[in-house]
Amino acid sequence: MTKAQTKIAIENVYTRRQARLTHPEGHFDKARRFEPSADEDGGDITHRIRTPSRAWPWSYMTACRAKKHCAVLVARWTEGLSVPADVTKACVEASDLMTMPTAMAVAREQEAAHA
User: Fold this and answer.
1) Under a CB-based contact definition with an 8 Å cutoff, are residues 90 and 9 in contact?
2) How many distinct helices (H) and strands (E) make up the chain?
3) Distances from the Cα of 37 to the Cα of 23, 26, 51, 75, 111, angstroms
4) 3-state secondary structure of 58
5) Among 16, 24, 55, 86, which is least packed by CB within 10 angstroms?
6) CA–CA separation, 32 and 22 (whole Å)
7) What are the residue ranges in the chain where pLDDT is below 50?
């Protein structure tokens, strides 16, 4: 994945999470505190962010929607590690987006050669 593709993937994940089109993987306990899944956390969230409390139940959720965390998830995907489905989708879309113009140019060249 190129730097441009990586930036597009990070922006895709971040924008979708901020717009609430996708959500971080995890679960809520009885006190409605969010806990990220193992794929979502990856040692990034639970070690550097304060533990949620009844007064502040969204600390992990907010951190999972941050651009810094989205960048960590995309980096983990490029390393072949397990990540949430929305991150995988964004990375695949970014890869396809950058390769599509190249594929179209090749098709045009082939078409021109046959004409």
Assistant:
1) yes
2) 5, 2
3) 12, 4, 14, 17, 49
4) coil
5) 55
6) 19
7) none
Look-up of token digits 């950058």: 98
Alpha-carbon dihedral sign for residues 58, 59, 61, 65: positive
Q: For the chain, give the longest Cα–Cα distance.
A: 70
DSSP bridge pairs for 43? none
Q: What is the C-alpha end-to-end distance of the chain, expressed in Å?
A: 34
Q: How far is CA 29 from CA 24, 35, 37, 57, 61, in A?
A: 15, 8, 13, 10, 13
Tokens of residue 78, six digits: 């490029």
- E-state strands within the chain: 26-28, 34-36
**How does DSSP classify residue 60?**
H
Supply the pLDDT for residue 43.
77
Residue with tokens 């597009």: 8
pLDDT at 99: 59
Alpha carbons 50 and 63: distance in angstroms, whole number: 10
